[in-house]
Write a structure and sequence with these properties.
The complex is a heterodimer of chains A (273) and B (405). Chain A is an alpha/beta fold and 273 residues long. In chain A, strand 6, helix 9 and strand 7 form a beta-alpha-beta unit. The radius of gyration of chain A is 17 Å and the shape is globular. Chain A starts with a helix and ends with a helix. By secondary structure, chain B is α/β, with parallel strands linked by helices. In chain B, a hairpin with a 1-residue loop joins strand 11 and strand 12. In chain B, helix 5 runs parallel beside helix 7 and helix 10 crosses helix 11. Chain B is globular, with a radius of gyration of 20 Å. The chains are: A alpha/beta (273), B alpha/beta (405).
Chain lengths: 273, 405
Amino acid sequence: MSRIERRFAYCRERGRKALIPYITGGDPQPAVTVPLMQVLVEAGADIIEVGIPFSDPMADGRIIQAACERALAHRVNIRRVLEMVGEFRAGDAHTPVVLMGYLNPIEQMGYGVFAREAAAAGVDGVLCVDLPPEESQDLVQALQASGLDPIWLIAPTTRVERIERICQAARGFIYYVSLKGVTGADSLDVDDVAAHVARIRAVTQLPVGVGFGIRDAAAAARIAAVADAVVVGSAIVARIEAHQNEPRALYGTVRELLGAMRRAMDTSVTETA
Amino acid sequence: MSDKVPIEYREFPDAGGHFGCYGGQFVPELLMAPLEELTQAYARYRDDPRFLEELDADLAHYVGRPSPLYYARGWSQRLGGARIYLKREDLNHTGAHKINNTMGQALLAARMGKTRIVAETGAGQHGVATATVAARMGLECVIYMGAADVQRQSVNVYRMRLLGAKVVAVEAGTRTLKDALNEAFRDWAANVDDTFYIIGTVAGPHPYPALVRDFQAVIGRETRAQILEREGRLPDALIACVGGGSNAMGLFYPFLDDAAVRLYGVEAGGEGLDSGRHAAPLAAGRPGVLHGNRTYLMQDADGQILATHSISAGLDYPGVGPEHAWLKDNGRAQYVAATDREAIAAFHTLTRTEGIMPALESAHALAYAELLSREIGPAGIIVVNLSGRGDKDINTVAALQGMEL
């Protein structure tokens, strides 16, 4: 059983929905990332997504692009991100870490080298945003050879045959993108999300996480009621941006946001149970 | 190539959009459905007689095709080498080859029931060509342009606004063409239901490289017929500048099976390939994935995309169409670079000897033609794609001479 599977099993046993925060590795500076990951765990994170900075993140909005630019200004590359994960893993053997990024930096490092070094650092899964299953065979082989879970996105526009295909290739969990648009977008229709999550659950046993547009505790609670996991990215990164020059305040405000989401999600689950 | 099985160029790309290991569809999941919708629509209309009739009529009466194939006698004789013909895409409506493609894609958008157009632009030529067809067809139009380019190309920004387009200055990244593409993709992802993305070059995810090539291939088809009529034989060489590579691909495509016709793509050498300040991914980059396709890129060791430099804003792009990447690797086409200095010199030479002011993009092709014409000699024939006119560049040229207009 992978670390991700164990975490979802643990959540299921306790009637708990998983909370998955995203941060960009090395944002706003490399020294912040490991302590920030520890803060996320203390505030109630079940899985942590760490972004590999890329110069041209076309699936992300302004907030995460700016985070990439802050990290790149410190010349943060994949190996630097893996060092951060390794340092985090030395103090936390249980919290799964998923790397999220774009294909080109991974391809330049080499699929096999990337997969082996990521696994050695304690990474559990990899989500490559601009790699559809049609193009993914070589990377998926490399990931699985190193025991890493390939994580896939499903969008509101994904038709059912593709949902089936993606779910067959996926391990760990499915990440449903709840909005048309990019990360950091507005507006969230919970009924619509529930309908799409049901479509995915009809074809897979994998847990379904929902991300895009979840900005506060109330939204997290509403999504938790219809999904297995809640993914929060831009709302956290916006707070990092606002406090980029004051690490202490940065940790405090992220802890506050994620903690509020955790409590709201747990309350909501109790109420609906 | 004689010891290998001949390549059936017409059979590429494959169903997944691949030219060998290049091309493909590397996009976020959200865009896979609209790309499939576009692929199906294009497959339906590309051979539809009524669609082609409408497109041909627009190309004839609105764009002004066929464009002339002009024998540059004075310039050829001055160089003392091959007979050089210029394919006069600069005489098209809006002053460049870009409108061949925007006309085709806008007609496709209308057939698909889309009411809103988005596009990226660097120098503003593709933006103007898009805003033009959108105005004519009554489509809402949003153009994304890097903030640095908005400042450098204020006249084209104003032209687009006069045409009714909204021009959005993109502040992210290097604030140039590549960032405008990112932003246009984001807009498309957020508005897939009513929006059509008109990509301006033979790059991006499948089906764009094939679709844009096919709309631009009118350049090569006309050239072929025109040179056969004038000279009774095919040319020895074709030369075109390559940024994303749409004018080059449009010229080359109908000649791919004519092995005796040498194909030369000329990239922007900027301040020289050794300086690192250039925009020549085929000459000095390596393969990677950006903007939906695998191709040659300007990138650092970590796979981050590099800022590019060229005197010509239209060539200032770190990637290149995947079909060019493939033609480079299989040897069918050669890719070379001309520096800023060489392009500017060719700009002045053509202006003075022929009374034709070329776009700085096209001037890169002209610069290489000067070298090649001497190598090929007076018995030879060369066709250079004069992809656009130079009026838009006179501020740049004047500034190099220490003048402000």
